[in-house]
Amino acid sequence: MSQFANYIDGQWVEGASASRNVNPSNLDDIIGEFAQADADQTQRAISAARRAFAQWSMSTPQQRFDLLDQVGSSILARKAELGRLLAREEGKTLPEAIGEVGRAGQIFKFFAGEALRIGGETVPSVRPGMTVEVTREPLGVIGLITPWNFPIAIPAWKIAPALAYGNTVVIKPADLVPASTWELVRIIAEAGAPAGVINLVMGRGAVVGEALVSSPDVDAVSFTGSVSTGRAIGAKCFASGKKFQLEMGGKNPMVVLDDADLDVAVEACINGAFYSTGQRCTASSRLIVTEGIYDRFIDAMKVRMRALKVGDALDAGTHIGPVVDDKQLQQDERYIAIAREEGGTVFGGERIERGTRGYFLSPALVTDTTPAMRINREEVFGPVASVIKVKDYNEALSVANDTEFGLSAGICTTSLKYSSHFRRHVQAGMVMVNAATAGVDYHVPFGGRKGSSYGPREQGSYAREFYTVVKTAYVSPGAV
To answer: What local confidence, expressed as pLDDT, does residue 479 receive?
Structure first.
């Protein structure tokens, strides 16, 4: 069986133990055994990043551009191969997985350019003859903790800006899906990243993540994952003075108004709710539908859902792959059962047998729900969507905002009046009109409001707000 080591200070290093990476479409397919770091090994990686920071932080924009541009090119050249690996370990369908890898390559290409565009400004002082320079400098050692649902895209959109702005990195990928990040780190290393600039420590969050958050040698932590873990990380970082960035949960609304194009609305909801097996923080988990179109919408959704093929992520024609593991599958089933107990009517949501042992679940649509039901309050993170019937637009907007989360929101309508009002008044960081709530571009900011996000936005030029520190310098006339 293939063995995969941690990467510390420019060397591949065996872990304190190892963990198997299993294909959720086929439990007999073992991708490999991946090293599990302990706290001491994690601290070695942090120390290596601290040593490397002195030189990398002073590297030229051209050096950083060259590295990131080469990484992006290498990822794109291996898109099919890496996509297949991603589909095997996480369960996305092969087309979705290849698309995610392509996005990772584009992210590195984008931030290669950003390395040349850091910029600054010189302004006159209020004092005669004095000038003021405002510049951005690297932050330091960045600890990155990434989730299992986007095994290469999310590591890419954290690593690329960190390196572009002159920081060094220690990354801990999700224990369920280490292979894609392992390959990404190998690509960065082979592209010529100096020893210690990029470090990979795989293992359990309670060990590796805790060491990253607790170490005084880590200057900032960027985390994507669950609400409970994110809040705990934020509290620890605040107590020690670390800068931190949190991307957490979502309970994203998709509003469908009476005047919506029914076909457009159904496709947006099918995509947003069920593609990627619903395992996206931006998934459309609450479908809020006005009463005039409600019955036609439900009928059309059921017809469309019957046509969806659930199966092996690598099989041609599969629309929905497996749930990522048995724990997540049990959580999905538990929420479906709770919805029934609270009075919801469930269409779909059953375990499916296929030719291989895997975690297959048919997509579930829960109707006859109210905003107070748990299915409409708590994040399920699976191919499960609930439907809430409302009277009109005003009630739809009120229900859409009735949540502790605020990541993404959508509306399907042909009305400029309602789409404009919704974009301004819905409490979400990202808004879609006549499009799925999931699926965002790599060159614009990503993030939410309320309980979904904390700290500066990720992606696009806004990433510099987290990965740099602003310095204001005053130069007097007498300076030489």
So the answer is: 56
pLDDT beneath 50, residues of the chain: none
- pLDDT digits 0-9 by tens, 289-332: 999 999 999 999 999 999 999 999 999 999 999 999 999 999 99
The one-character DSSP state at 42 is: H
pTM of the model: 0.96
459 and 420 housed in the same domain = no
Residue that is written with structure tokens 């090119």 in the block? 73
Which helix (H) or strand (E) element contains residue 157? helix 153-164
Tell me if residue 462 falls in helix, strand or coil. helix
My answer on whether 238 and 258 are in the same domain is no
Q: Distance from first CA to last CA of the chain, Å, rounded?
A: 64
pLDDT of residue 480: 55
Note whether 412 and 459 are same-domain residues.
Answer: no
Shared domain for 205 and 295, answered yes or no, is no
Q: 281 catalytic, yes or no? A: yes
| Cβ-contact 49, 141 below 8 angstroms | yes
Beta bridge partners of 32: 21
Q: Residue 189 and residue 206: Cα distance in Å, rounded?
A: 27
Provide the number of structural domains found in the chain: 2
**Active site residue: 281, 379, 412, 458, which one?**
281
- Dihedral, CA of residue 368, residue 283, residue 401 and residue 339, to nearest 10: 30
CATH code, 71: 3.40.605.10
Tens digits of residue pLDDT in 419-467: 999 999 999 999 999 999 998 999 999 999 999 999 999 999 999 999 9
Distances from the Cα of 388 to the Cα of 268, 344, 394, 466, angstroms:
16, 10, 14, 37
Question: With contact defined as beta carbons under 8 Å apart, do 410 and 436 qualify?
Answer: yes
Residue 363 contacts residue 33 (beta carbons within 8 Å): no
Per annotation, catalytic residue among 90, 96, 114, 247: 247
Rounded to whole angstroms, how far apart are CA atoms 247 and 62? Answer: 31
pLDDT of residue 250: 96
